[in-house]
Design goal:
Number of strands: 7
Shape: globular
CATH architecture: 2-Layer Sandwich
Strand order of the largest sheet: 1-2-4-6-7
CATH class: Alpha Beta
CATH superfamily: STAS domain
Largest sheet: 5 strands, mixed
Number of helices: 3
Radius of gyration: 12 Å
Order of helices and strands: EEEHEEHEHE
Number of domains: 1
Strand content: 25-35%
Distance between the termini: 26 Å
Length: 107
């Protein structure tokens, strides 16, 4: 499990490199994401979820907290490259209406 990040020309990329975003890792990941969002000067944050196969309620809480933090900081959050399983969960919970979701990373 790791969180990798880098500043690109048009956005700040956060790559969650883990199979499960669940209760076991939620607090640690939440703290790291909120800190990264606070620290970056970029106004567009992209979270790459291509390696996250499973998200439980704690994991969704992490992503919602990240979205709320972005809104407070007047930043935009996009979730990118969701796995089919994650995409289905977002749809079932109607979270695809709350989040901006992209099929791939922005150019």
């Amino acid at each position: 499990m790791s969180v990798q990040y880098k500043t690109l020309t048009n956005y700040f990329l956060i790559h969650l490199k883990m199979e499960f975003l669940d209760a076991r890792v939620a607090e640690e990941i939440k703290a790291e994401l909120l800190s990264l969002i606070d620290e970056t000067q970029q106004n567009l944050i992209v979270i790459d979820l291509s390696e996250v196969g499973f998200i439980d309620s704690s994991g969704f809480g992490v992503l919602i907290a990240s979205l709320q933090n972005c809104k407070l900081k007047k930043k935009e959050l996009i979730l990118a490259s969701l796995t089919p399983q994650a995409k289905q969960c977002f749809r079932m919970l109607n979270l695809d209406k709350l989040f901006k979701i992209s099929e791939s990373l922005p150019a």
